[in-house]
Amino acid sequence: MEKVHVNLNYSKYFSYDILIDHNFVDNELRGIANYNRAHLVVDKNVCELYNSFFVGDIFILNSSEHNKNLNTVYEILNFMKNRKALRNDTLFAVGGGIVGDVAGFAASIYMRGINFIQVPTTLLSMVDSSVGGKTGVNLGDVKNLVGSFYQPKKVLIDTLFLTTLPEDEFKSGLAEVIKYALLFDKDLYEFLISNKTDVVKRREDVIIKIIKRCCELKAKVVEEDETEQGIRKLLNLGHTFGHAIEVDSDHEIKHGIAVAKGIYLEALFAYEKGMIGKNVLDDIEKIFEIYDYDLNYQVRDFTLFINAIGSDKKAMSSGIVLALTSDVGSGIIKSGIDLDSIKKFFEGARWMRPQ
Ligand code: NAD
Ligand code: MG
Fold first, then answer.
1. Which ligand is nearest to the CA of 263?
2. Where are the alpha helices (DSSP H) in 147-203?
3. How many A from CA of 335 to the centre of ligand 1?
4. 96 CB less than 6 Å from ligand 1?
5. Can you give the pTM of this predicted structure?
6. For the chain, which has fewer Cβ within 10 Å, the N-terminal or C-terminal residue?
7. What is the fold, at CATH topology level, of the domain defined by 2-165?
């Protein structure tokens, strides 16, 4: 079993372990499901695929961005109330980023906060969303507008779940892996380039190595800047344009796929503005090309799209903030970017990848 510790300096109580292994969570879940001091929110597909893991009364969530809202939070809170959940009880989130974000937010406000354990079942949630304590829901067409910082007590990562994950979901998660490599780890970038076959085959040891590395990188960022005042902003690489793509496509484009397009388009924008060099743009294109990502995006509703960039919660009154790759393995933050310059960039056919 691999272990990554997230050490939150202000309190040992809030620090936690991430455990990573293949085929171990089954016992844990079966063990707790009958126990009335634990409550489970489980992704619908995961519940069907791993039916024997779950016994008793659980909350089943049909994961979609359209259900990632306050109404679902309300239903989970009622589920807890009906089960007479108490302050010392634990809420388990078993599923992808949607289950984790929604259940995490519910756990953070039920009785002003109860114990919370993440059991991520998608690659994206294993390498990103289950670690770091961001929880939340969408409000109308604005992504993650309502939420809290609320750290889990533990994260249990069982790579067995990846054996049933559809190809497009795996690719979505892999985009966040590429994000970490571009921002923090040139070795991981090289590793991904040289080991494509094993990565896409999901070879167990290769996948565990990648997940562990991403968790270490994320843990380090969160330890330094839990509430995103500084370095954590880097993790938004690709997310400013990416969120607009998610919203404009009415969530037909998955989070990680939108992030991949966002990373590329933000880099193209930054290159055109002289903020980054051509070599960086080329390195970004290269890795996404190797993994067969389509980097183009055809904006559907231009006004909605630009407004989504402008209303991004990472934006400040002084302008848009973009996280960028300055060189493979290092990131920079650029703030005060004028929305008009972004608008001009997307006007015409500029969002199509130059051939
Ligand atoms: P998701 O939760 O929608 O899951 C994707 C799909 O995979 C769903 O249809 C689900 O039913 C299915 N699924 C899950 N596990 C499976 C398995 N083991 N086998 C087969 N099918 C399985 O999507 P996601 O990509 O995991 O998460 C995306 C969400 O995460 C977005 O809402 C995004 O905003 C959020 N996010 C949050 C953070 C954070 O720090 N909190 C970070 C990144 C992303
Ligand atoms: Mg993300």
1. 2
2. 167-184, 186-194, 196-200
3. 29
4. yes
5. 0.94
6. C
7. Rossmann fold (3.40.50)
